[in-house]
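in:
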């Protein structure tokens, strides 16, 4: 190539750092603390506890609303004696049985619905019929069918979990793009293999949302069932603990039982489900 045909060399002057403006701004200590989600949530809980304490002191009626301090004292006493952990463990065992059974049934119905037309019609019809039906309303029938035992409570728990998980899972499967489906078929996947390899990972945000809703429905249904049903197989859970404390007018113990229910809910939501989110959909870039 001749010298005349060569492109001229472009030389750009070096610019000083201040010409670029602010590239990186140092955060203030308050901004760094504010970016911590656990600290913000802890501050909200402290504010709620202070509001509870002030309202109870202003009301000055322990039979209606005990103070936060009295509730914590009653809670600690019940925990130290071992009564409250034992009751919570009974409730969690029954909850695990009903929740797992409901999730498995929901998965089977959803796979049937996504692979066959008759399965879709069946799931849509059943959810339209039974999803609006409160689970606790089935408890009298469950007592007749399954007797005085864990089976009655498990039945209503399955009902409370099944439809919420099935609806969210089915909606997530239907929202998977045709491109991903065609990719799976190009790899020779079909039927159950397509569901496991393609549909479940792609629809996992919706599936996880359904699991959260199902867990919440199951938890509150269990407590309500224990309040109505009472002791199951000679053992009482948190609902029965609250019922007994109410009959004895031990109102701080009633609030201690409610506080335990709230604490378990916070742990499940912020530890169990957050860990699943961090290791799945956030790692996969499906959620900010």
């Amino acid at each position: 190539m001749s010298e005349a045909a060569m492109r001229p060399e472009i030389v750009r002057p070096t610019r000083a750092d201040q010409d670029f403006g602010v590239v990186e701004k140092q955060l203030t200590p308050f901004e760094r603390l504010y970016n911590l989600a656990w600290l913000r949530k802890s501050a909200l809980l402290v504010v709620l506890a202070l509001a509870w304490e002030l309202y109870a002191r202003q009301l000055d009626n322990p039979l209606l609303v005990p103070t936060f301090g009295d509730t914590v004292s009653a809670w600690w006493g019940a925990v130290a004696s071992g009564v409250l952990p034992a009751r919570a463990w009974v409730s969690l065992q029954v909850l695990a049985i009903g929740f797992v059974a409901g999730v498995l049934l929901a998965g089977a119905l959803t796979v049937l619905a996504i692979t066959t037309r008759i399965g879709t019609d069946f799931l849509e019809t059943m959810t339209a019929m039974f999803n609006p039906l409160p689970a606790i309303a089935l408890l009298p029938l469950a007592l007749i069918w399954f007797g005085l035992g864990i089976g009655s409570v498990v039945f209503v728990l399955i009902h409370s979990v099944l439809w919420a998980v099935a609806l969210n899972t089915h909606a997530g499967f239907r929202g998977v793009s045709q491109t991903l489906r065609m990719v799976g078929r190009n790899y020779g996947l079909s039927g159950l293999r397509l569901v496991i390899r393609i549909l479940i990972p792609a629809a996992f945000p919706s599936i996880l949302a359904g699991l959260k809703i199902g867990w919440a429905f199951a938890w509150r249904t269990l407590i309500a069932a224990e309040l109505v049903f009472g002791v199951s197989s000679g053992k009482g859970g948190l609902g029965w603990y609250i019922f007994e404390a109410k009959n004895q007018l031990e109102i701080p113990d009633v609030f201690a039982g409610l506080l335990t229910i709230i604490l378990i809910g916070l742990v499940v939501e912020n530890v169990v489900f957050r860990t699943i989110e961090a290791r799945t959909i956030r790692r996969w870039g499906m959620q900010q």
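note: The chain is about 70% helix and 0% strand.
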